[in-house]
Q: What sequence folds into this?
């Protein structure tokens, strides 16, 4: 006869694994292009974010630094979001992003930048290559889309792995 605590433990581990996988994390960061913290997003903020993307973040004073879209990286997507917000758009962090080439609306940008579609095809006057693209140096690369089926598969693997690991800890009683 197997000890009943291993079944309870397996159930608890499985429930905890599902909780970790299915519970969205709460963001402490908000999409905010106001890089200088003065309460308005304008051309000064856009210049500050661009300078930070290029390595000089000294003037970024808001809570996010210059990580405008809160993804943990300061890049041309942040520049695009700040520019988008400076034009009066509110949902800029929800705009699709991807590789943008042949930019003629700005000087001094790399040949390929990953930024918002609305900025690439609008203000930047560039060529947008699609939402599942990015730049690797000057080259456009395709990025496979994440599927919900893949996340479900990962959840099942975690559950099966936890069950197998805990199954080896079962004890027999006479």
A:
């Amino acid at each position: 006869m197997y000890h009943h605590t291993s079944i309870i433990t397996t159930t608890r581990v499985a429930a905890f694994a599902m909780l970790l996988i299915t519970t969205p994390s709460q963001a402490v960061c908000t999409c905010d292009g106001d890089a200088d913290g003065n309460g308005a997003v304008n051309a000064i903020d856009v210049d500050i974010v661009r300078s930070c993307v290029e390595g000089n973040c000294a003037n970024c004073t808001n809570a996010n630094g210059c990580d405008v879209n809160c993804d943990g990286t300061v890049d041309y997507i942040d520049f695009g979001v700040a520019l988008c917000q400076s034009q009066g758009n509110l949902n800029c962090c929800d705009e699709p992003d991807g590789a943008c080439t042949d930019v003629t609306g700005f000087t001094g940008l790399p040949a390929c930048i990953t930024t918002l579609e609305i900025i690439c095809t609008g203000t930047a006057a560039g060529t947008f290559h699609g939402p599942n693209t990015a730049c690797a140096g000057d080259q456009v690369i395709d990025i496979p889309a994440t599927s919900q089926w893949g996340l479900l598969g990962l959840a099942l693997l975690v559950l099966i792995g936890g069950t197998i690991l805990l199954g080896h800890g079962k004890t027999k009683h006479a």
Remarks:
- The radius of gyration is 23 Å.
- Residues 86 and 159 are 46 Å apart (CA to CA).
